[in-house]
Every structure is written in structure tokens, then in C-alpha cells.
Amino acid sequence: MSTIEPSAQVTFLTDDDGKVVTWNPACATLFGWTPEQAPRHALTELVAGEASWAALAAAGGGHLQLRMAGGHEGAATLTLLRQYDALGRPQGWSASILVAPSESPDESERVGNTPLARVVDLLPGTFYAINRAGRFVLWNDNLERLTELTPDELAAAQVMDMFEPRERALAAENIRRVFEEGAEVSMEVNYVSRSGRETPMMVGGALVACNGGSYLFGMGINIARRRDKERQLRLSERALHAASNGIVITRCTGSDNLIEYVNPAFEHIAGYTASESIGRDPRFMAAPEFDAYERSQVRIAVAERRAVNVVFRNKRKNGELFWNDLGITPVRDEYGEVTHFIGVLQDVTALKERADHLEHEVNHDALTGLANRTLLWDRLEHAVHLAQRHKTMVAVVLIDLNNFKTINDTFGHQAGDVVLKVVGRRLSAAVRDSDTVARMSGDEFVLVLVDQPSLRFTLRMAERLRRSLVMPVAFDGNEIPVGASLGVAICPHDGCTPAELVRAADMAMYQAKSNGGGVHFFSPEMRSASEKRAALTNRIRNALEHDELFLLFQPRMDARSGKVRGFEALLRWRHPEQGVMLPASFLSEAEESGQMIDIGNWVLDQACAFVHQLRQLGYTGLPVSVNVSYREYSQIGFIPGIAARMQQYGLPAGSLEIEIPEADLIRNPGLGRDLSAQLHDTGVSLSIDEFGKGISDLSFLRQLLVRQVKLSKSAVHDIVAEGNGSQLAKTLIDIGHNLELAVVGEAVETEAQVDFLRSHGCDQLQGQWFSEPLAAEAVHRMLDQRYHAQ
Hints:
Helices cover 39% and strands 27% of the residues.
């Protein structure tokens, strides 16, 4: 292999993740990878030592030691430039590497052999080298000027003589640590010169090996100016300390505003000391259950970097609510940028409400009369404290009602309130007077069961709680079924603080909910599962930002002519670690975490853009169907959002279809009727998915403006060449046609299924038998081939 001349330069391309895309012979000569080997190798593999692609990309490259061909390393300069596609979207990087020319050995040797004594006088502060005996063996002129000692005097001086008596113990300990532990140390001292002049210094040092010996090499920096500024700050601080109102100064740090200073009045009002407050966002005192509008005004003002004055409730350290008259003023630096906020607060509780009324409001839930979150934490903290003192057990039971949202949607919020009140009374009747029943939020209840003699006893209590909720709740002539998922955590086994216990009980409740309800006790395995869910939730949050989601489109074929009649948009996630993931792997977590709305909006945008592309290519009359969840279409802005997209992409009526499972529509008939009518008015077709999977209400389906039904996958999969398993599919096809609806058979995978569905009048077919889901470019090629073949 030929050698590379110094100053040689090579250029190649990488993808967004720093993986090699192109590789030319010059690159192969320099680094030893052949053009066949290089693609998909990470650029960071060429870097000697640790290297992060994210850091390299953010810095645009840098000066690095690279692994060259032949196993040796060399200095080089890496330059990274962002590349863009024809639409201006970021697409990969251009990497350029310039090999540094080797220096003349003679010149390098001359610089390397320069005596240290000729350099130290150029340093801005004091420089010194000390041996183990504590004597100076090397120093610069600045040290002589600072101490006002001659070279002979410094040579004879002991380093400990340079420190004031009160500082010598710390100085001796630091010197010991340098020589015995190899530590790097620093400390602030006051140098007192021969004439008595005092100079504040920051001094430090570290161990350096020299020709078989070890010495402490160090420097000192004059910090007199810093001390002057500190004195000025102390004067300002004393003025703030004297104020009777609470004062908080925060620093702007992105989405948070971290506290840098609080005065004694604040400590008295809030109950938090300065050390407990500094470094935290003031929202740690927030009472989010109250005064949502006022808090929104603060958020908006802070985001807009302007002053605001509000009155709302905050929480003291002891959990007590207090009315806070808060004025916030932005502070700008010399460039006009807001760097800090000053908050002035007054405790106006006595002026707002009588003390007894405020106490009850703070500690009890207004709807159920149960303890609220504030009182719960107080009771739980007290219970944990007593349990630790008396060596007893405390159980925390977190209860989440099953399908409570369905109760609200089906019977109304008044019925939901009645259910919550009845549940609260039943729980209170099932426990002892010494226990606490609290409503945490929504349909979540937390119980604190004190003095638990054994786990068996706790299990019996939890079962009694579960059975108390089984009986339906009567409301307006209806019997509303009620069930619950219970998670149990025990102190001290599962946690020693209130937060740990509630968190463990929540994990156990989540496990119970995943298994259909019942009682579950916490186990360490649940913590691991919870952490994995949290990691998946965070990853989903970044998936849209990092363009990791994409759509595939599966064609629907005319059962008789074989022509393409439309497409179904299918979501996929190109996970950076797990590869391409199907929706079943992550959509349930997206639903649970509330991220489904953003994902659904993105899918609708992409689907409309795809239809628009097809129309531009001349392929009209090919609608695209999109699956939407209950959480999506129950949003107030769902229909206006679809109408806006139809207008934005210039799509005529019939271009977009919305697929909703039959069970979801029956879940809330009123919403289903309204939705179908609004979609029809917007020019969007409604398609019933998973038809026949569960209980069907044919009279309800007649009330909907529906275009077609799609047979449930199980009904299609049950079709065999011979046997009774095919009767369900035949019956569903007949029902669909009797309702004057088109019938689509999806998930078609075998010839027997194709023949059966065609022979029994199924209108359209979709599945792997005809085509796997295709990328947009593959759809264009397929349509182009079919178009020219006709």
C-alpha cells in the first residue's frame, strides 16, 4: 500500500448517525478500509481514544488523533459539513480530513528541551515547585515580588511559613495529599509579604515526576478583584436580608428558572431554608390543583420575559397552602438579554379567607370529603415516622378505577362524580379509623394502612377493599359497573419514604391494571418494568423530533378486477437500537403517556401529503385510510384539524378515510353519531375496522354515515379450505351488504382466503397475499408499472 504524504486530504460522506456512506481509494489508502468494508462503519472508529459522534457533529469536527493504515496514529483535522436534499432537509454529512504535516524532529526537540526556568517567568501568576521537605526548588519572579523575598531567602524558606497560622493545618494536609495520594488541590489563602501587605490568592498544585524525583508544581492567582466584588455583593445581600417581603432571585436556564438567592423573609414565609431552595425551580412550591389560570399567566409572562403580578396559592414546606401575592420583574444584562427574574412575595393568607375554612380546603377533597394529596402526604409521613420508631409496618394501597373514563363518556360527568363519592364512602367503611383514605387525583385513591401485623393481614384488607368496590353503583335508573386495580407497597420492605412507597404502589397498580384488575403487591421486577416503560416513553417523545417515524402504504385491491382501489397508511418506527418496530410495540405506551395526539397529527399530515403526491402524478380516486384512536377523535379539534389539512393539501372529498374499530364507536354511541356526521360534512369517509370482532349493534351502525366495513382479522384468519371456521366471514359479508356497505377483507394471506372471499362477494381485499406495505416511492413504481401495463 502506498504511503500518504503529509498534508494529504480526503473527503467522504456519512449518514445522520456518522456511518460511512461513500469511500474512495484515497480514503482506503489513508485508513486501510477498502471501499467494500467501509460503508456502515462509524466515523468515530477512526478516532484514537473515546469519541462521541454527537459531540463531533455539534462542533463541526476538530483536531484529532486518527488511526491510520498500518496501525500507527497521526494528527489530523476533521471538518464536518451538513448536507441537504433537494427539499432543503438535512441529509447526512460531508467529512473532510486533512493530515497534519509532521514537524521537523530537530525543531520539536529544541522546543521540548527548552528549560522550564525560562518559561515560568512568562506565567501571569506565581509559579513554584516544592520538594517533599517543603522547600522551594523553583519559582518565578512573581513569587519574589509577592513575598518581597530575595532568591536566597526563598531558597532557604519553608513553604509553611507563607501561610497564616490558622491556614497551616489545611495547607499541610493538602501538601500531604499531593505527595502521598497524587491528588490535585487548591485553596484560598492570604499572602502576607515582608512589609505586611496582604494579598488574597487562589493557590493550588499537583504532583509532577522529574528525573526520578517527585515535586509539587503549583500556581497562585491574585483574587483581590473577586474579593472586592464579593464585598459589594454582600452589601447588596444585607439590603435584601433586611426586606420584610420574601425575595427570590432566579436564573434563566432554558425551560426552568433555578433559584440563586432567597432572603430570610422568604424562608419564614415558605418554610424552606436557603440551602433547600437554591438550585431548584420555584415551581417546587406549586400547588397545581389550584389557581391554574394565575399560574398560566406566570408561565406566559416568564416565557415572554416581562413583568407580572398575580395572587395564587403555594405550598409551604410543611404542606400547608398559603396565599401568595407575587410580583415578578425581569433583570437584563448589558446586552439587553433577560438573565434573571426577581420575585417579591407577600403572605396574604389572612386577608383571603378565614383560617378554619382555609385549613379544610387545604386538607380535604371538595367532591368526596376525603383527605386530599396534601393531607395524604402529611399522614403518610407521620405514619412512616411512627413505623420506623416502633418497628411496625405501614401499607400504602393505590387504587385506580377501571374504565372510569368510559363511565364519564357513557353516563356523563355527573354520574362519574356520584361513582367517586360512593367509592370514597365504601373505602372509608372498609378500613379502620386509624387508617387514611385519600383521593389522589381523578379516579385515583390512596390508602394508608397503619400498624400492619403481617403481610397476610394486609392481603386480607386489600381483598376486602377490592370486594367493596365490586357492587355496581346506582345512578338515574342505571347500574354502573365498578371495578378497580389495586397496587400495594409495604414499609419498610418496598420503601422508607412516602414518595418511595407511593411510587412502588403505583408500579404494582400498573401491573394489576395490565392483568385486568385485582390486587398486586410490589416486587423489584416491577421497578425494572417501570423504568423500561419510562425509557420507552422518553424515546417516543424524541421519535418525531428525530424523524424516526415513517409510514408504509398497503394497497386495497378490487376483488373482481384486481385493480388498486386505495391504500391504508401503516405506522412504523425506525428505532435506533431495536430496528423497525410495529405499532403494537409502542402505541399503547403512547396512549398511556398522552403522546398519541402528536403522533396521530403527524400521521394525518403524512397521509394527506401522500395523497397529494399521488394526485400530482395523475393517480386520482385512490383514497388513503388512517387508523385513529378514541383519544384522538374525542379531541375537540379533531374534525377542524382534518378539514384544515384537506384544504392545505387541496384534497377533494373522498380522498381520505378514517378507520375506527367497531368496539370504540359502540363505546360512546353519541360521539360516534356526531363524528360520522361531521366527517361526512367534511368530505371524509368513515370506515368501520375490526367488524365482527366483538359485540355488534346493527341498529346503531344503521345510524352512522359509514362507507365500508373491514372484516376482523380473526374472521379472515379462520377461513380454511374446508370446515365451519369460514361461516363467520360469510355471515359478516352478508350483514355488511344488507347494511348497503362495501366489505373489505384485510390480512389476507392465503389462496384459500382469497377464493372464499371472492366467491362470497367481498368487495375489496388487502393483505400480504397481494402486497406487503410499501414505501411511498415503491407505491409510485407499482402504480407506474400497472398503469403502463394496462
